[in-house]
Amino acid sequence: MKRKVVFFVAAMMCVIIFGGGIRTQAAEVIQVDRFMEKDNKAAATTNALGWAKILEAINSNEDSTTIQFGEGKYYVNNTLKVPSNVIIKGATANAKDSELVFTAPKQGLTTEAANATNPKYIKNVLIRDISIRYEIDPVIMSGYAYTFSLINFAGDYKDDSTSLAEPYERLDNIQIDNIIADGNEQANSIIYWGGIKNGSVKNSEIRNSNLQSGIALEYCQTVVIEKNKIENIGRAGIVMYRGNGGSGTKQISIIGNEIKDWMQGYGTQHFYAPANMEYSADDRKSMVDGGIDSYGAANNNIIIDSNRLISGEGSNKYNPSNIQINNIERKKKNPQATDLSLQHEVQTDKDGKIVADSVDATLQKNMTGYTAIRLSGAENVRVTNNFVQLDSYDNFAFMALYERDRQGVKTTPKNIIIKNNDFNASGRMRYPVRILTGAVNKSRGISIENNRFDVDGLVDNYYKVMMEVRNPVELLSVTDNKASWDKQINGWITVADTGTSNYINNLLIWGNSGTKKADVTRVLNNTMPSTLRIAPLELPNPVTPFIGNLYTGYADYKVGETNIKGMLVNNQGRYQIVMVVINGVGIKNATVNPDGSFLINVKANNITKDTPVAVRYRVNGNETYDSEMQVKITE
Predict the structure, then answer these.
(1) Does an H or E element contain 210, and which?
(2) Cis before residue 529, ω within 30 degrees of 0?
(3) Which CATH superfamily is domain 26-158+168-210 in?
(4) Measured in whole angstroms, how far is the alpha carbon of residue 485 from the centre of its chain?
(5) Which residue among 78, 107, 526, 603 is least enclosed by CB atoms within 10 Å?
(6) Distances in Å between the alpha carbon of 593 and those of 158, 165, 434, 581, 615?
(7) What is the mean pLDDT of residues 231-259?
């Protein structure tokens, strides 16, 4: 160790004597205090130049270099470029001890990956144990659009004029751990990643974006976003824009995060966007992005597990964007109108309807709404074990599933599992679950299984149901869910009458239960309302909505001394392999015959008519999917 220190000191002496550029050795540590002054805002310019000197020290070094900040605040007024093979870290494990503060309206930390003339491939970057934030003078900020992000690591951006099939990859092994990233409502997004092959954001506090998102991904392949606190976000908490994930190990994993108060700013801008202003105020499109949001298209292989999503100002209060819009529109009608407080309470009558003049009721369906998790343009997704609490008069949906078609690439939701989630809302909810189109992949359509729904307020859609389907869905499974509600809800599922071909081709529905809070004897109908009909047609009627192949009970099997025989009705080749599961234990597999029948040779003398027996389906010999039908004995 002493020899290494002597060598480093000698090398530094050579630099001083000969005036050459600084060069480091393998795994060297560069102390930032040698190049940047701390706790002095007036040093922001010289500190930015000091960072350039640090880059001179490491740009030619292929070995890992640590850039070590001390305790204190380091102010800079320019973008700081991050090279490959570096660890940027604070003084201690307490991220508050070391602060990097940007005082100019520019990108914060970025790389040369998006250099238009000479893009570089950036790899092996770790940022940890440090606080990074904006602190821009409001007078200076007033002359700039919010177009910069606090951490912007991306390749050359492909805008909407290019094909969606042209992804970019410019970064690999990018890790963020235990940081505080605060946009101070001046950053567009807090963290924007594009074209990252492998990366993670963990154990961090991400807060106070302006118009856009906490974490935004585009064309990222394998990313883990885990155990972060994300709050006060202008648009989506975590958004997957397009082309994220992929096959095999290319997976986006969003696990164990707490996301609070998204959709706090962008809704107002969207309402008055030029494209939206072409419509009347009554017809403008709403802005309802999710706490966790797949924008799409071409997002594939996503895990959303054990997150907490909490938003809303209270069951009788509006989203702040909506109050801003109301104030603007009220003053258009009456310049003397008094501004409503951002904490304005909704005034409703005994039936939950808005009291006239408490707000502009004509705007309600066209404003900002809270969606917990949105899966637009996503396939092969698992949404499991999440907790959602939405308390607002502007709740839109717990879950929304949409098709996305951009630049000639269309992605329809398929192979979607929504399971073991706890969904809670108070106030007003437009659609607890909204499904716009669903297809089948790997024998899986959309499975909504074993979730808990608690709605303390008004479900404000025409049919008043838990789940509304508005475009054709090939396979929908709704099983073993529980609901609790206090106002009118008619049933679990409807196919909305939209005037076009609209249907569910295969609906599997059973085991769902729940009660109205004031009337424990009331239950929900499986399907509502009368626009639904069971139709065995091979092709849907062009207009009338219908559900075909409705499973409301159990498939049957017969038990012999050593055989279990079964039949999957209307299988149509969808499931190729089944496993019989007895008391939760897989016993044996069998091939499903073309007619849906199967035979498994097992000793089944211990089975009675009360024994829990399930069929678990397989598409092939390698991939297993949770059961969608229970089975019972026919003696």
Answers:
(1) none
(2) yes
(3) Single-stranded right-handed beta-helix, Pectin lyase-like (2.160.20.10)
(4) 26
(5) 603
(6) 48, 39, 35, 19, 15
(7) 96
